[in-house]
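User: Please fill in residues for this 388-position structure.
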């Protein structure tokens, strides 16, 4: 285990590792895990990845679990990076790729974060875990908590896709459906967690979900033979995937695996809930809560993200941007991607396609560039979105 400490992403305050923490004790912002990368590099090399296990734990030296017996795994990670040749040809792009996170356990990228969060909760002695969720994070927590023998308490908006609710119920979680949005569910967890003895594993309110998500960056580099793409287009609700990848790129540079060049990071949100897009366009570092948030892409219906400044910092540092698309555009794109490439994307993942079209039309993406779209989940979990 090469963890040295936890560090506040905002004020830099150092926190002791190997203890349960939620947010920074001083300023209430997210904590990030820091490693002794020089020590990690002794056994973690590009060459010795060959033959390692084909899940996210192949990058064991830069993951936080100290003892192997505490790893809670269902085969998460190392999802395919698909060359989308037909879809690319329609757009005039020779190098368009889709990272298909729908092939994870629980059928979304949330499996990555919950694998590491639950593993660390088990290692550090938590026994009851709670989360507010728009759907897929709930399903992932329920599954990994069951695998670890821990209790899961899940709060979701009452209009969460039915597949997510059934998934949680059938994997033993305690499920509460609430009127309102994920922010209302989060307020309920915060109100009750101390009295109930729950450890809160909300997005970026503990330091370890982002560690699982950062393996997206390690995998992308490995699958592209250690040359990062020119552009990454990523659907953003809470933003841990984008934040995690940005962290991974910095770590890999320190390991000597990549150089200082970075992809242009692009956030995609729904027009009905676009706090990051609005803050980016207005030049703000923090994103105000988005009023009356509404979109069929439930994973994008996050009106206020605690990691907003980390997302916006990455967009600006990479010369990236933020794009909003309509529900009509992302639903139509699901069929377009499916017909061209055989992938039934989640609405959030499908939103990347109309965003790419807007960027191409504006000249912000060139046709000779390598572009990666992220499909964050499986469309089969969103059948209500396609019922019309």
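Assistant: Residues filled in for all 388 positions:
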């Amino acid at each position: 285990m090469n963890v040295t400490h936890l560090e506040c992403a905002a004020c830099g305050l150092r926190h002791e590792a190997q203890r349960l923490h939620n947010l920074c004790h001083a300023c209430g912002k997210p904590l990030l895990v820091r490693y002794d990368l020089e020590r990690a590099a002794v056994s973690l090399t590009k060459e010795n990845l060959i033959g390692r296990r084909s899940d996210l734990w192949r990058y064991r030296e830069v993951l936080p679990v100290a003892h192997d017996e505490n790893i809670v795994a269902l085969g998460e990670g190392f999802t395919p990076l698909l060359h989308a040749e037909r879809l690319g040809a329609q757009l005039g792009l020779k190098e368009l790729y889709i990272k298909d996170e729908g092939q994870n356990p629980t059928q979304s990228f949330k499996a990555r974060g919950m694998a590491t969060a639950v593993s660390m909760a088990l290692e550090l002695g938590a026994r009851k875990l709670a989360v507010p969720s728009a759907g897929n994070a709930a399903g992932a927590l329920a599954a990994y908590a069951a695998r670890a023998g821990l209790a899961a308490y899940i709060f979701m908006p009452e209009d969460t896709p039915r597949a997510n609710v059934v998934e949680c119920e059938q994997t033993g979680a305690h499920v509460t459906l609430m009127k309102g949005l994920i922010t209302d569910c989060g307020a309920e967890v915060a109100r009750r967690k101390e009295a109930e003895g729950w450890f809160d594993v909300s997005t970026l309110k503990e330091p370890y979900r982002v560690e699982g998500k950062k393996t997206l960056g390690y995998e992308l580099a490995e699958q592209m033979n250690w040359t990062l793409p020119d552009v990454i287009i990523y659907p953003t609700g809470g933003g841990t995937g984008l934040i995690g990848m940005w962290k991974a790129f910095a770590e890999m540079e320190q390991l000597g695996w990549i150089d200082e060049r970075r992809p242009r990071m692009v956030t995609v949100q729904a027009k009905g809930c676009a706090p990051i897009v609005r803050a980016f366009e207005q030049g703000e570092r923090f994103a105000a809560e988005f009023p009356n948030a509404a979109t069929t892409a439930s994973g994008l219906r996050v009106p206020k993200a605690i990691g907003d400044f980390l997302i916006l910092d990455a967009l600006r540092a990479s010369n990236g941007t933020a794009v909003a698309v309509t529900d009509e555009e992302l639903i139509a794109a699901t069929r377009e991607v499916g017909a061209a490439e055989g992938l039934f994307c989640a609405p959030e993942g499908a939103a990347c396609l109309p965003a790419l079209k807007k960027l191409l039309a504006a000249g912000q993406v060139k046709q000779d560039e390598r572009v990666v779209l992220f499909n964050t989940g499986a469309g089969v979990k969103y059948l209500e979105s396609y019922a019309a």
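For context: The two ends are 50 Å apart (CA to CA).
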